[in-house]
Amino acid sequence: MKSKIAAAAFILLPFSGQYALAEEATEEKPELTVSAELGFLFKTGNTKSGDIKAGINLKHEKDQWLNMFAFNALAKKIETEDENGEDVFESTDNKWDITGQSNYSLEEGGKNYLYGSLFYQQDKFSSFSYQTSASFGWGRHWWETESSSFFADVGPGVKYDVIRAEPATATTLAIEEYSETAAIVQAQALYTKQINDFVEFKQYFVAKQAVESEKNSYYRAETSLTTKLIESLQFKFSFLVEHDTEVEEGFENTNTETSVTLVYSF
């Protein structure tokens, strides 16, 4: 009797394994994932100020398509005195940007892809009223494991900048603006490392290199560390560096931003 039971179990084992795989296959990743982040800093006492940083990221995967969208905004106000000696809040930072990119894999489950990307940034206190660019080209997933991934792409594009001749103030826009169009070569890369079940590290870099030497080139690097608090809520620390090679007098070439935010994924 025992031998018959053992034989029956042996015969059914492959089918039970197939059933488990089929059940596992049904647990597919969602096509659309969304995350939103928000951070506040308010100071009172000798210095009164308020900072707000917000962002939203969307990622859509279907068949051989991968679509990504990101929006980020930063605002800061500090309390100062006006010409009449009255306390007023003055904006010292007012910036937002949008990035969108679509990747099309050349073969299903393959590593090579074609991409198209768009970028727009508006910053009231930089050398540029706004900057925008578009690029298309080829990319590759150089490696992807359970704990880490690295992809990079490169291609030609065009960049259009509206440049300020003078810095803006809290109440006025910069005057004597002029525009500049430049052909660029864009290269970007993203490295992701899952350190453990709760901590993730990301390093992103993009370069928009102008073909003509006298035109402005733009570089951006962002390092972030995300810690999971609960299943859908994370704590994020990030450090951002932006560099423009050509800016008007009175503006800095390099700007940095350090932020701490809460990220909610759904």
Your description of this structure?
- The chain has a single domain, classed as Beta Barrel (Porin).
- It has 1 helix and 12 strands, in the order H-E-E-E-E-E-E-E-E-E-E-E-E.
- With 266 residues, the protein is mostly beta strands.
- The protein has one helix at residues 2-26; strands spanning 32-43, 49-62, 65-81, 87-105, 112-123, 128-144, 148-163, 178-194, 199-210, 218-230, 233-244, 254-265.
- The chain is flat, with a radius of gyration of 25 Å.
Q: What number is the mean pLDDT?
A: 84
Gross morphology? flat
The CATH topology name reads: Porin
Q: DSSP strand (E) fraction?
A: over 45%
Give the termini distance in whole angstroms.
Answer: 53 Å
Helical stretch tally: 1
Short key terms for the protein model shown above:
266 residues; mainly beta; Porin; twelve-stranded antiparallel β-barrel; 1 helix; 12 strands; 9% helix; 65% strand; flat; disordered N terminus
Topology, please?
Elements: H1 2-26, E1 32-43, E2 49-62, E3 65-81, E4 87-105, E5 112-123, E6 128-144, E7 148-163, E8 178-194, E9 199-210, E10 218-230, E11 233-244, E12 254-265
Antiparallel strand pairs: 1-2, 1-12, 2-3, 3-4, 4-5, 5-6, 6-7, 7-8, 8-9, 9-10, 10-11, 11-12
